[in-house]
Amino acid sequence: MAKRWYVVHTYSGYENKVKTDLEHRIETYGMQDQIVDIQIPTEKVTKVKDGGERVDKDEKVFPGYVLVRMEVDDNSWAVVRNTPGVTGFVGIDGKPTPLRRSEYDKIMRRVNPRSASGAPAPKITTTDLEVGQVVHVVSGPLADFDGTVSEVMPEAGKVKVMLTIFGRETPVELTLDQVTAVI
User: DSSP class of residue 178?
Assistant: First the structure.
């Protein structure tokens, strides 16, 4: 049976602990052949502190979620599901649903952030966007997602967009160079 990527829901803020605990459980139960990888999607974000100091920091792209590459059977499912901090798998009717390769690639930033023609996306400004407008994410870990603008922050040069991720509407703050208006 093939190993596929699955999305595991965790308590928000416990993603690293879940990863560590799951790695120990895999070793303890001898599941290394069935559960082969665990990823917490992150992106580098530059924050400006008081006094203008810039600090680079890794932030979780999907707080409360961990990606696990595994072969699902009753034993591997139980090892993951019973890990402290895990609330369940993302899927239908309690059955884990694997990610398509294209979904995994989008999440892990392996998609080329250029348009289909190969040209960089055109620059937009906050005056080009308004609440309720549909935008397309052109770069970053969420590239190729479409969403609706919920807030425009001209002073910060950012926009808050509602994206449907794992079947849930999720607010995501993006810089203007990461989105383009859908016409």
Answer: G
For residues 1 and 49, the answer to whether their CB atoms sit within 8 Å is: no
Report yes or no: 83 and 70 within 8 Å, Cβ to Cβ. Answer: no
pLDDT tens string 26-67: 999 999 999 999 999 888 777 777 777 788 888 888 889 999
**Is the full-model pTM beyond 0.70?**
no
Q: Residue holding tokens 């139980």?
A: 78
On the CB side of 75, CA atoms within 13 Å amount to: 11
Spatial distance between the Cα atoms of 44 and 6, rounded to a whole number of angstroms? 23
Angle between helices 15-29 and 74-81 (to 10 degrees): 140
Q: How far apart are CA 88 and CA 111, in angstroms?
A: 28
Bridge partners (DSSP) of residue 9 are 65, 88
In whole angstroms, give the CA distance from residue 146 to residue 100: 18
Interatomic CA distance for residues 144 and 87, integer angstroms: 28
Q: Residue 122: is its pLDDT beyond 60? A: no
- Rounded Cα distance between 63 and 73, Å, is 26
Dihedral angle of Cα 97, 99, 103, 108, to the nearest 10 degrees:
130
